[in-house]
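Let's inspect a concrete specimen:
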Amino acid sequence: MEKDITLAEDYYAFQRKEWLVARIFWIAMSFVLAAAALGLFGKGLLSDRTVISHGVRFEFNKFMRVEKGTELRIHVTPGGQNAQVSFNNDYINKVRIDQIIPEPISVEVKDHRLVYTFSLVQNGFITFFLVPYKTGSQPLDVNVGNARMAVNQFVYF
């Protein structure tokens, strides 16, 4: 009879530890789920960013996923002249540019930067459709005239 009571007490102690571990797991999973819902792994409140520099507005995602398309939107105040948008070479080596709206007038490489020249026709909006293909932190440095945006984006698996 004592043996049965000892086994029951041992089982009860194990069960209390198991419940504690299960609660910790569920709390951790709740945080991961809430972060995902808010955009930690893609579009959402935690990921969407807007930077304004010298009258140029940059809209981008701070967190991206490999092989999942995203957009970099640039709003330039129409001034009747061409706009030059340049990217750092490191970023271009880690992200593929699938499409650009509107089409650039010219594309050239200057000082280790990829430079796109646009005729501002569509209300000053320029959209780059990007697909990252390497994971990790990626420095994004974009210049539009005197406006500069330098941020780090993070790409998940």
About this structure: The two ends are 56 Å apart (CA to CA). The first helix runs from residue 2 to 38. The CA atoms of residues 5 and 84 lie 80 Å apart. The helical segments are 2-38, 89-92.
